[in-house]
Amino acid sequence: MRVKIYPSQIQGTLRIPSSKSMAHRALICAALAKGTSTLSGIDPSKDIEATIACMEALGAKITAGCDQIQVKGTHLKSHRHEILCPCNESGSTMRFLIPVASLTQDPVTFSGQGRLLQRPMDLYARLFHDQGVSFVQDSTGIHIHGALRPGDFTIEGNISSQFISGLLFALPLLDKESTLTILEPYESRSYVDLTLEMLQNFGIRIEEISPTTYHIPKNQAYQAQTLPVEGDYSQAAFFAVLAALQEKLTLTNLKEDSRQGDKVILNLLENAGASLRIQNDTITIEHQDLRCQTIDLADCPDLGPILCVLASFCPGTTHFIHAGRLRIKESDRVQAMETELKKWGVDIQTTEDTITIRGQRKYDRPDVVIDGHNDHRIVMAMTIFGLCAQTECIIEGAQAITKSYPAFFEDIQKIHGKVEIL
Length: 422
Description:
Layout: E1 2-5, E2 12-15, H1 20-32, E3 36-40, H2 46-57, E4 61-64, E5 68-72, E6 83-86, H3 91-102, E7 108-111, H4 122-130, E8 134-138, E9 141-145, E10 152-156, H5 161-170, E11 178-183, H6 189-201, E12 207-210, E13 213-216, E14 226-228, H7 233-245, E15 249-252, H8 264-272, E16 275-279, E17 282-286, E18 294-296, H9 304-312, E19 316-321, H10 333-343, E20 347-350, E21 355-359, E22 368-371, H11 376-388, E23 393-396, H12 408-414, E24 419-421
Parallel strand pairs: 2-15, 3-14, 6-7, 10-11, 18-19, 22-23
Antiparallel strand pairs: 1-23, 1-24, 3-5, 4-5, 7-9, 8-9, 11-13, 12-13, 15-17, 16-17, 19-21, 20-21
Helix pairs in contact: 1-2, 1-6, 2-3, 3-5, 5-6, 7-9, 7-11, 9-10, 9-11
């Protein structure tokens, strides 16, 4: 899909869709619970569809209604012989569910598309091999056979928090207690906190015995729940930056006391000089003169692309540190943003782990054509750039937004952004 983005003056109020991070976690917990859970407020996307498909493959019964999803839990050891879990491009789905799926004791294959099967899975490979459990990764997918056993687990904290969450979903179901120790540096801890919050909602107890060590009691059972899913600060960030660069916007459906790590976008925008007003689940962001800062992406890597857009329009020099994790996402997001921003004339330099941008107030190059890099966050970030530029541009591969936010362009139009589907 090709879209044309025109310079636009935005205004209005927008409801932010549900948190994809929390929706994944809620669906998994509900699918592991005895009985039927009701989840409300979940917005559709390809990633969420992948988690639903995989939990159905593992035996859950999931029915989507107008604004609710009914989830009848699975008994993992019902012996389906061979199981295929289609993860599409969802790294969260695959990493969350590999330990869970092992508990079936059946042969399970996780398939993937795009760059998913190229993303690091060595941590699970080592862990499974150490326990004598079959773990094979090839061009057709990841193939496991055999059940994870309880024990004392020690894993790196600087690869992906999704491995930690995956173990936390599975270990409470085992017949002996376990401990999980995270080696420093413990990055993206806020995402693990989201997992702990959702586990608690479904009756699972995890004991934090130190900042890097968890004790997991044995023989626990997930309890069915009726639960709303909160709005997504990761998606809100695109509109929050747009407002900070342009005009006032009001964003709703954002939990004020959310534990989402990407809520840090509010602090970063205030540090940049934007005006914010927060009341219950509503946040109003208003443009002010902006200033540069140093931004640490260790705990908020998904904000990297849109923060690069913010930095591009902030006069002076913005430094990003701990940016290396952006290179192993749906695309190499450091390289992708460098390539696409340079088409606009942005002064950007990168290293393996840093990004430096010397911003300016205006960009007006003609005939800019942006490559979406098959990455939803690149497409959305460069859309925001295009709305703030002085000349129109075209984005190719814009269908990548369906991974997390299919209604993105519709929502842009709701706030008077001019987007034309070509």
